[in-house]
Queue: 2 jobs
Job 1
Amino acid sequence: MTDLPLHGAMPEARPARSILDLDPRTRARNRAEARFRAYGLGALLVGLFFLVLLLGSILLNGLSAFTQTRIQLPVELLESELDPQGTRDPAVIGETSSLGYGDLIEAAMVQAVAAAGVPTAIEPGDLEDILSPGAGAQIREAVLRDPSLIGQTVTFDLLASSRVDGYVKGRVTRESLANDRNLRPEHLDIVDAMREAGTIERGFNADFITGADASERRPEEAGMGVAMIGSLYTMLVVLALSLPIGVAASIYLEEFAPKNRFTDLIEVNIANLAAVPSIVYGILGLAVFIQFMGLPQSAPLVGGLVLTLLTLPTIIIATRASLKAVPPSIRDAALGVGASKMQSVFHHVLPLAIPGIMTGTIIGMAHALGETAPLLLIGMVGFVASNYPNGALDGFTSPNSAMPAQIYEWAKRADPAFYERAWGGIVILLVFLLLMNLAAVLVRRRFERRW
Amino acid sequence: MPLGWLLLLVLLIAAAGYVMGRRRALSGAGGDTRAMHSLPGAYGWNVAMAVLIPSLLLMAAWTAVAPSVIDRMVAPMVADQGDPALVMSDVRRVARGLVILDEGFDTIAAEGLRDRLASVGVAVGQDVSESTLAAAERYDILAARSSWLLTALTLAIAGGAAAWALRRTTPDLRARNEVERGIQGLLIAAALVAIATTIGIVLALIFNTIKFFQLYPATDFFFGLTWSPSFGGGSELGILPLIWGTLYISFISLLVAVPLGLLSAVYLSEYASHRVRAWAKPMLEVLAGIPSIVYGLFALLTVGPALLAVFGDGGLGWMDGGTAVMTAGLVMGIMLIPFVSSLSDDIINAVPQAMRDGSLGLGATPSETIRQVVLPAALPGIAGAVLLAASRSIGETMIVVLGAGAAAKLSLNPFEAMTTITAKIVSQLTGDQDFSSPEALVAFALGMTLFVVTLCLNILALWIVRRYREQYE
């Protein structure tokens, strides 16, 4: 071999260049590569940005619902107004309606304004606009509970009206009140002075978590408590029905079903049910459970039945996956020592699949907890949630709502003060969902076996 | 007897049956378990199941059917009182209220009864007439009779089954096989719930849709260009504007979700390091776990006003209000990103590594491999994923109820408020007890349309995805 070329001169060479230099085409391809990669990263970042935006706006708008503005107001409970005969009999005192306390509140407000030292042009009768319309009822309740208060001057911790609350939280400004019939900008001068004096304060709002829905005019009183109870009862029904039915159906399909057309039909059916729009389940519940069977409207029992049908496909799919993950050697070993097929499944396969089943069930329940549309159709709308159920069993059948339906109800209302409640409701709902998903993750981490 | 007590009684009979069956089998074998076919417990379970299954079935069937049977027997008595559904609910309330008032039907007068009932917390829709009272009496009698009949029948069946099963209990009885057969029957019944659900959906939709088409011509429904329901009568219920709104919104949502979801799936499965993947994928899937009501509120209160600030009067002037096709479509697109991305992720991962290696070995860059080898190979699966996403967005309710507006319009402007099939189902049916007017029944026809469309999309998508998976297995 020789270094010399065979035929004299080298062939017409391409311009000499180092292999470390990239030709224009390669550079273009590399740029295209970088661009494509950037598109992918960009898409991912946009998705994550939306997540941050969503969670951010929930927290930003929702956390303020957990605080509430209250006014400490000394009210003189005149005997001449409430109990002229001096009987102290609750039946007699009860005859004064909450409206009857208006005069007392008015007098108390006039005094409080005088004490704050603000000269004001507002009529004494309009001063109580600073307070919630429910203030009378709040005082009346306290008096009925303890009639000996009559005749004394008692300092009550009263709810401020939603506009005042909004002002303290920065939602309402003097400009926005210009066209508002509920409160005048002059009221805010009084509010400022009372805040200076410390009689108007913003504090933690436990009533939002435990309370019931309130009428359209009293956003400051509305709470999630009753709707949470409705959700709890609904979820109890879902758990009690969907877990046994789902597990039984999965065991049959995974362990016993012969491979034939009928089994195929069930399988296709379940796959399709998983993708049927949730509102169609609502129509099913309305037509079958309420129209045909005559079950009560708005009852968590019916809500639970509908959501059971809705979550069953999810639970079946998850349970089947975890049954499938149990290795056949377990079944073979059981059968080998003389267990029947049924015994091998119930004594050996099922216990090993329980972590997967639990994870699937919790996720299915979390899904059901956030479901709104079917509940609206069967009458579990938000404004129904105004009373606590009378007893433990009554909770299944007495009209109630559920958390997402309550949020929807607030989102629909005209008063922007309800929007804050809706965001706050979402915070509560998401806390529950977070806890459920955490539980699912923990169960999976702690108990799942890899074979 | 109240249902709860009856249930308790049946359970007690079953428990007693268990103990007695077990004891009988054991004593028959002289206490020697080796002489028995099955374990002692199996004999007990055999008796208990013989009691439980028929009596519980009877109770379930009875409670499901009895109310409507009673209604049908009472309804002719108050047929002249106006809307049957409302009158019957009054009859039921009067019957229940009289129990609370603790008064017999012979002493009560119809006059002033409404106020007396209201005083004990039973609200009746209209004044109680004599015939309503008579119907309530009849209702009460029938309900009591039904309850007694159920109690007697259930107890007879439970007792009879216990006696029959006990008599058969001998040590030679193949008790385990019988119990296992029973359990397998229960398992099959559970699997059949899925089929029953589908049948229930189809029947519920079909019956009410037929009722609707008897009141309102089908051609006007399917080809009508106006949607203006009025409960006073004279409504125009054309579905076309609703279909247009539905398709428009889901088109925009796919326009958002498909590129973003697909590209992030590509990035996550082909480029991202393990650490990034382990973080970013679950984060993205959080979006899928958030309930749609949250997205609805997000559309109404965050995205809508933000879009209005840009495209509204202050900006480009294309938009009149925060609720619009764009708002709903955009937010629905965000909701669908993780749905599209996790489905595409699975499909991209199913493309065999050998195909990638071949392409890379020939000198293609990773992006060329993805665009010219992986994506074409995954295309059918991705098409299936897009169809599933489309079916999701067509069936989505809360986002459009809150974000898209309420006016049914045929317009091309994406910044205008439009409405969808699902939103109208909610508005026509919520809080309504009366299913006799076309304005309420139309919701069932809408539901039927929705069900058929999504079912077709799902079947098509599942078929494509399944076929595609088989291709590489």
Job 2
Amino acid sequence: MDQPYEKQNPAVYAIIAMLVLMSVGPVILMLANSFKFDVDIISGASSFFFMPTIQNYETALCDVLWYEPDHLDFCGLKFGGAFTNSLIIALVSTILTLVIGSMAAYALVRFRFFGRDTVSITTLMVRMVPPAVLLVPVFGLWNNEFCIDKNSLVGGLIRDTFGGRGDVCLAGTHSGIILVYVAMNLPFVIWILQSFIVQVPRSLEEAARVDGAGPFQVFFKVILPLIKPGLAAAAIFTFRIAWNEYLLASALSDRNTKTVPILIVNNMSEFNVEWGVIMATGMLLAIPPIIFTLLASRQIITGMTAGAVKG
Amino acid sequence: MATEVTSHAKTPRQASAWINRASPYMFIAPAVVIMFMALIYPLGYMIWGSFRDWDPSQTIGEAEFIGLKNYVTLWNDPNFLESLSVTLRFAFLCVSAEMVIGVGLALLLDRNIRGMSVLRTMFILPMMIAPVVVGLMWRYMYHPTVGTFNRFLEDIGLPKVDWLGQNALTSVIIADIWQWTPFIFILALAALQSLPRSALEAAKIDGATAWQQIWHIKIPLMMPVLIVTALLRLIDAFKVLEVILVLTEGGPGLSTEILALRISRTATEFRELGEAAAMSNYLLMILMLLTVSMFAFNKLQEIRAARVRMIAEEDA
Amino acid sequence: MLKSLKAAALGTVLMATTALANPYAEYEGTTLIVNFPAHPHYDAVMQILPEFTKQTGIEVEVDQLPYLKMRERQTLELAQDEGEYDLIAYVVFSKADYVYADQLENLAKYVMNPKLANPSYDADDLIDGYVYNIGFAGGNKGYLEGKTGSLFGVPYGSETSVLGFRKDIFEKHGLEVPQTYEDMLEIACKIPELEPGMGGLASRAASGHHASHAFLLHLAPLGGKIFDDNWNPVMNSAEGVAAAEALKTIVDCGPEGASTFGFGEALGSFLNGDTAMFLDTTVVAGQIDNPKKSQVVGKVGWAMHPMGVRRGSQTGGFGIGIPANAENKDAAFLLMQWLTSKEGDKLVALAGGNPSRFSTHADAEVNAKFPHMATFGEALQHADPDWRPIIPVWGKINADLGTTLSKVLTEDLDIQEALDGVAERTKTIMEDAGYYTWQ
């Protein structure tokens, strides 16, 4: 970027401006609509000159507000709870994926279990599995096989502590959803991190070893700090999938573990297309990814190119 | 006594040796356990289940074994075949359109100009936002009366378009193009910018026009990256579900019912887990074919590159 | 010991205030977990539940889901040994699945229990057709009224179809409110000419459940059926073709984009003033009078579902029942009884729900608040409990029918050919399910 910018044909700038508008436009439209009354949205009042209202956000967030909005007869939408679930699931699965993935990537690079080709083939094979394919088996396993009998020691303990009924199953718990997300994201994370770990000079590790550090200390104290950019990129991609995923979460969650995408799809229910409220919930779901995009676009691009080009 | 002392003295060293020897396995074990539990085993379970007449209220053990019946039923089910063809059309149309637009834009905008970093940042946005939200934004914009597009058409005096009715598949593809063209654009741009400057300079000196440079130098040199990108996108296109679910729920008729959606409907709405599992297997086989062909292509490229290098060395 | 003392003390307090024994005392403090649909009637129920808690001391936690999702959730929940839900609302067509799989409690043992059953409940006041359609199983054909049947649920949120029309538009052009199908179709196609930009009749038509529902809505009044008395599919009869043609005419003369309308979009276009008529469930009345959602407040009149060869409006809505794997079955019965009692039915009607009792439809206070209630009450009595079959394999047939009809509407498939195809596939499904074993 040291070179001075070249002078360009104005048409090029026009194209760039148009592209920016096209990619941001729908989001801005959604933002504007989320501050409108349904009547205004439907009647087609002007897109940008209208009386803004926060009523849609009040409806969406009614279960976490400290006051009761006047326009609501009862609080039907439990958005706050779903948002918390989404946060827990996305954060925990991101952290777990990163820790487990970076360890595996390290082992694969340094100890050479298989050739790199085998690893990349497996990674890609796994990467191609669509979530829809996992729907049936995961649904069956999480509900029937991955269960602890409630009369057993552990099962009884869990039922006594957390309440609930029936055998203790993975389905309907945060852990159940997290487990799927970690498994879904691991191949990609391992793949990205490998390309970063390869670049860490061996001499650094050997120096640490001479100082008496064990393999785990070497890994956590020497390797991890050096691959921070890779970790950041991997974290964003993992978080994005865990935060946005709908299908498997909807099959595995129960009334207490619903995530935001499920809530939005449910809210598109046929009896009331309440555009304003739906746009508000959509906007709330989109906020974290938008923040990431604005703050860390460089890491995202790094991750994308590392994940794709070297794949 | 003496032996005991020595063994005491030995233990820490033994332990550390043991840790050293075992550490590779300890590093990789968690990943293996999780992948096995939540990916490999479920896939096996699915294949097993696809041979059964399986209702969601049964456990797999209770379901009756019916051999290949689910697979045969599907082959004779016109709805499944239509859904398969919709999936293939969706995936290939999306990816070709995205490749053309994405690479075209990259070639056009591969310049050192102000505003590029803003464009790149903003361009990532559609990819980062939840597919569910993308679906709902487009569903609003496509709305026959309230939606942005028809309002606009009306304002400039053109007839309205029945976006999600008569033109549902096209509309769904447009939404996907909006979301994923940036992916190809960014990768193509990265590939362009890492091209060897010398080749381009040489061409310029030889007096090649801009078009000649693009056709004879840039595109051939980018080809390996482009093909990998296209295949990655293709694999992802088979995973699309949420956008279509929110936009059309597969309708009208079956015109946008891609396989992923049909699997989910078969499992939850028609309550035929066995058939859904068989369908998942068909989908998996298609994807497997794609991935294998991608690897074969990659290997081929490597071999050709190696041969070229060898010839070059022999010449030298 | 202490607890029972406390309960006794509370009991005395209540006795002092109400001068009655408190049959709820034993269940005070219990929390019931119930599964209700996200649906206008149950939104009204949400408003009256606090009253139940106040009267009885029983807490209620509601899990509200869109109704197709609700069904998926229940399929899973009811199959467990011990389920989470104490009381569920179910869609009419789920009745067959649940009862067949032994997942709903037979209500006899609760009605017989003098500690639970309220003597002033007056079950005869519940509208007959709905009790049989929604709550009854094991009668004629397995799902209709009959001597071998018994009660597994109580109708709650009874809907039928009525014709809503724009009084102002009809007056402006001197149109008569249609009494027959011919009139209705004629007017539906006249409207776009009289009022440019306005559609005739808003109907659901989207692929799947929506299109199938709209077809069935016309099938019964036009004299058609899905099955004859021997379970042979006859939706491809002349009457079936007429019903599909009616649907196609309605969609063609309907508002912009009508072929993709789900229920929400169809209602939305009526609320927005884009269509002159609306033929669907009674559940919408509350929204049409709500100025926050509707641009046609006060402009809408209601009439009976027009006649074809006979009267035959839909029977739809929800029932509530107790899952066989529930934890607090007795308390759940008390809630169910309270909700469907005269008092509960009236409360929910006043909150904008769909009452299921004759007395509520005749109630002066309810009629004063909702003038359309009398028409709706009359319509309910013409509702046809056999307008769609409620058998376990219906889900599959319904999906096929809905997808095929959507193709008729958007891809101009030949109607007779399309319905013949559905009939043929239905025959196979029925064969596999064993319906022809005795023939």
